[in-house]
Amino acid sequence: MRHTVANAPAFSTLDLELAADEEIVVQPGAMVAMDTGFDLAAGFGGALTRRGGSSTIRNLLVGESLIRVCYKARRDDQRISLAPSHPGDIVAIELTDAPFFIARGAWLASEPRVDLSVQYAGVKGWMTSTGLFLMRAKGPGLVFCTTHGGAVRRDLAAGERFLVDNRYIVAFTADMTFELVTVTKELGATALSGEGLVNRYTGPGTVIYQTRPLQRGGGWLSILAQSIF
User: How many whole angstroms separate alpha carbon 115 and alpha carbon 113?
Assistant: First the structure.
């Protein structure tokens, strides 16, 4: 399978070329255009690989659709274009040894061999506006994520630390240490400013973040209010 991200960074499309019998699992409604040599299979269960009675709940927890859509090429050189529902970029993550955590709603598509599951993120996930649960993607294979605005990748060396505002995170290496910290030690500034709580990541690993937030925040009190109301 070959892939190209076209029309970046504001109105990106994911252009895929599949050989005979190759497949791609896609977020429902993401198909823009395609050749006629595809078979489409859709059913309940969502993107998450593991099936069973709890699959519906698991997909809801990570903000994904309850429907699983798979396109399979019947012959070689079949092309399909995908796009998210919002303006932004698309980033491809090659999963090898290390799995990745994907923020709520960022998954667009992946190869069928990629294992997608749910992992509890606890209070850190809730306070970082990604929810109590994170999608965990394990390879080998490709997974494609969408962003608001452009996508930025930062590779961290062992022991290197990096801060990302909590509303901008898209994906990061699952075995990295990540902590919820404050930019300032002053309680009033933390509670009221737009730069209060941030994620601190410690390498080695990779962090992918977006250049626009899903929604504008107003510090810790704003996040708390949004969570309650």
Answer: 6
Distance, in Å, from the CA atom of 57 to the CA atom of 53, rounded to the nearest integer, reads 8
Q: What residues contact residue 178 under an 8 Å CB cut-off, 6+ apart?
A: 124, 172, 199, 200, 201, 202
Q: Determine whether 73 is exposed, middle or buried from the number of CB atoms within 10 Å of its CB (0-12, 13-18, 19+).
A: buried
Burial class (CB in 10 A: 0-12, 13-18, 19+), 57: exposed
Type of residue at 75: R
- Dihedral sign, Cα of residue 114, residue 211, residue 67, residue 25: negative
Contact 216, 225 (CB under 8 A): no
Domains recognised in the chain with CATH numbers: 2-228 (3.60.160.10)
Considering Cα of 53, then 55, then 61, then 64, what sign does the dihedral take? negative
What gap in Å lies between CA 145 and CA 207, rounded to an integer?
Answer: 13
Residues 82 and 146 sit within 8 Å (Cβ to Cβ): no
Measure the CA–CA gap between 39 and 31, rounded to whole angstroms. 13
| Both structure tokens of 99 | 């799995």
Residues of the chain with pLDDT under 50: 50-59, 62-64, 126-129, 193, 218-220, 223-229
Write out the two tokens for 155. Answer: 């590779």
Instruction: Indicate the pTM of the whole model.
Output: 0.81
